[in-house]
Amino acid sequence: MKTYNILFLCTHNSARSILGEALASTQTNGRFIGYSAGSRPGSGVNPFAKELVVQMGYPVETTSPRF
Question: What is the pTM of this model?
Answer without folding.
Answer: 0.85
